From TrEMBL, chains A, B:
Gene3D superfamilies: Tetracycline Repressor, domain 2. GO terms for molecular function: DNA-binding transcription factor activity; transcription cis-regulatory region binding. It holds the Pfam family TetR_N. Residues 39-58 bind DNA. This is TetR family transcriptional regulator. Keywords: DNA-binding. SUPFAM superfamilies: Homeodomain-like (SSF46689), Tetracyclin repressor-like, C-terminal domain (SSF48498). Residues 16-76 form the HTH tetR-type domain. It comes from the Bacteria. It comes from Streptomyces albireticuli.
Length: 205, 205
């Protein structure tokens, strides 16, 4: 469970190897100094490449940020979709979704911070595409909460507001999570699954 | 309830007027481009002043960030302390604290984002001072939760973890809150007060 295997997994779909190294370098640079204070030269240097070599893979710095945002948002959305197993009750599905979403934001907190805090630096079309993925993420959580309300398992006076709060609670783990801290990503996921079931008024049978 | 009166109030204690204008300009610049991509020249320009005039009030760019962080953290802490009225039950106090804390993070979302996301840019001593204020903020919420557990009003299996979650939920309002959105700061505060009472296992009498 070291950092390296996770990071490899995080960007496994980015090929070839040079493109993946550039993404990893860009995440580190953006996290350290912010998007606007980072140059493509900084990123290429961190990846041990020339600025010219960077442009073979990414047209612009914004292109790199877009790629990072797409991979990050898709990974988080896929996790939520995998929690949608048929035949399970809404409470189990919501708890599984929260566990997985929290674990992702804790393990990949550096990527998650870049993705969340630098949204405004994306170009108009790229921004619109990311907003679309965020709406799908929102819809996944909302659907589970609605199922639980329909089945009588949950009591939620304000479903859209509660959906925003649940997602916000999980996403903000990326801000405060400390890999050297007292709690593991799994422990935070477990705590949060319980808190979210309380937020939706679930009563354990 | 326009933006201007609020902003004046936010920095009312920063004097003289030129120092206040510089703080306002710095918050806007840091929020737009990040701390590291902003120069003191940018900040002075936004405030309609010369770079030399800036140095009369702040020795460095870091000094400005520190001042913004101190004012922001103290304002949030003061709000929580004001909610600690004697003679009120823990549920009322916790709900009041959440309402006030959420409203502050919604109304001052630009300042709150700068304060939260640029912590790492503070010098060592300044960082330590801010961490101290954050511990005091944490202690305010934890004390109310502990009071509620002691009185039997709340049922909380993990008080430190739940304290982190409650603060995180409120702070993250600054990330997603949109002044042009559907909900006012007061409405989000009301929704969140209810959600937090559920998180601490409060049952309405």
């Amino acid at each position: 469970m070291g950092a390296e295997p996770k990071r490899t997994e995080e960007w496994a779909d980015v090929t070839p190897d040079a493109a993946r190294r550039l993404v990893t370098a860009a995440v580190a640079a953006f996290a350290e100094r912010g998007y606007h204070a980072t140059t493509t030269r900084d990123i290429a240097g961190r990846a041990g490449m020339s600025p010219a070599a960077l442009y073979i893979h990414y047209r612009t710095k914004e292109d790199l940020l877009y790629r990072i945002s797409i991979v990050g948002h898709r990974a988080a959305l896929d996790l939520l979709r995998r929690a949608r197993r048929p035949g399970t009750d809404p409470a189990t599905r919501l708890a599984d979704a929260v566990r997985a979403f929290v674990r992702w934001h804790a393990e990949h907190h550096t990527t998650a911070r870049v993705v969340q805090y630098e949204l405004g630096a994306l170009g108009e079309e790229h921004y619109a595409e990311i907003v679309g993925l965020r709406r799908e993420t929102d819809a996944e959580i909302r659907a589970v909460i609605e199922d639980g309300v329909a089945s009588g398992d949950f009591a939620v006076p304000d479903v859209p507001g509660t959906t925003v709060a649940v997602l916000s609670l999980c996403i903000d783990v990326a801000r405060w999570f400390n890999a050297e801290g007292k709690r593991t990503p799994d422990e935070v996921g477990e705590l949060y699954a319980g808190l979210v079931l309380r937020m939706v008024g679930h009563r354990a049978p």
